[in-house]
Amino acid sequence: MEPYELTASQASLLIAEKKLSCEELARSTLSRILAREPIIKAFRFFDPDQVVRNARELDQTPRKSEMHGLTFGVKDMIDTYDMPTTYNSPIYFGHAPSKDAACVAVVRHSGALIVGKTDTVEFASGGRMAATRNPYNLEHTPGGSSSGSGAAIGDKQLQLAFGTQTGGSHIRPAAFNGIYGIKPTHGVVSREGAKQYSHSLDTIGWYGRCVEDLQLVGRAFRLPEVQNSERPSVKGLKVGLCRSPNWDKADEWGKAALLEAARRLEAQGAIIVDLELDNRYRELNHAQEIIMKGEGTAAFLPELLSGHPDLHQHFIDIATNKLQVTPEALVAAYDLAAECRRHFDSLFGATLDVVLTPPSTGQAPKGLQSSGDHVFNSIWTLLHVPCVALPVGLGDLGLPVGIQLVGPRFSDVRLMSIASACASVIDCHPSLSSFSK
Q1: Among 172, 254, 294, 340, which residue's Cβ finds the most Cβ atoms within 10 Å?
Q2: Choosing from 9, 12, 146, 169, which is the catalytic residue?
């Protein structure tokens, strides 16, 4: 096994035991990136010489944490002091921030090796699409807006990477690239230094190659533990099978992945109960859109007022409130979200441990001009709850399909423990073609 093939957890152990140096891991990673970047196009910026220099420095520095020397990618709408941050927007090409975003500072101070900036949909919103391709099929999208981060992990060019989610921009790419990802509870990771779209929705998450990788990063962020977070047994785990109000939007493989995951868990002793959300939840997709576009008006006003000729019409429309979001509509959306948050949290306890639900409509769509539909994500983003994406298998096009596990607010540590228990049961077959759809 080449060093770049190691999961973050595996590499961390070898570095701690001095069986692998940070420079060895860095050079192996760079070889993989240089071989695959012309094909996958996951990066907007990386400097091999800088990466090697920083890795050597880490080898001369006392090990700071279990993240020491691990390769980390940063979505190019999150600031880095030593690399440009362009937001994939022509009006910011060459932009050089003077300090790291808070999330980058946390992992850098923990010893992570920042390898480069990964491609994104412009401003993590719309306009220019990422050039990144799906590593399973180059004609299909890797999802977005965290396109480069998701593909780089899926193609083993990085061990860890940041993504963000305002609608479905983090969990959906995890599903499309067959990887693991967590969108934490809203607000537990600081968004300082990341381009804002919607202050009450934007959430920074991260990707890895297994749940243990997600947990490793979670420890660096000191995620709050408000419940017993010991790894539970699948046997007796109370799982709410939630097709969601948008079940008719899923393709046959998206539906198959969810039902097969439930079958696998039940075969190992989990208690599967159908969870049907009431009519209030049917309005949440629209409420999320109202809040996102309503708050986006203020977020993109500076770009509008700059008068830059290359500002995409998508952002002009948001900044000028083309959707005509009214204060009354925003208040109604905020109130509905608050009501549903309280109700959703109340579902957990004696009768429910975790929710099992689709992370996307199914297999990644063909073409690079659409990053996929966030219809299966925006509900959970608006509810502010943590979500963990797990792969299940491959559909008929050889593209990954998966599921997501959802818990109540601030249950991030507990949710990752549940995901760790479920992963070996759910992610165990390369193809889904052998069972009924």
Answers
A1: 172
A2: 169
**Please, where are the H alpha helices in 146-300?**
147-154, 171-176, 211-220, 252-267, 284-299
Q: Is 434 a catalytic residue?
A: no
Q: Which of 41, 75, 156, 293 is catalytic?
A: 75
CA atoms within 13 A on the CB side of 325: 23
Q: Residue 232: what pLDDT?
A: 87
Low-confidence ranges of the chain (pLDDT < 50): 434-437
- Catalytic residue, from 9, 110, 145, 146: name it: 145
Q: Which CATH number does 3-280+335-426 carry?
A: 3.90.1300.10
Domain ranges of the chain: 3-280+335-426
The H or E element that residue 333 is part of is helix 327-346
What does the pLDDT read at residue 383?
A: 98
Q: Taking a C-beta distance cutoff of 8 angstroms, is the pair 89, 128 a contact?
A: yes
Give the integer Cα–Cα distance in Å for 305 and 299.
12
- Neighbouring residues of 108: CB distance < 8 A, sequence distance ≥ 6: 100, 114
pLDDT for 227: 60
pTM (predicted TM-score): 0.97
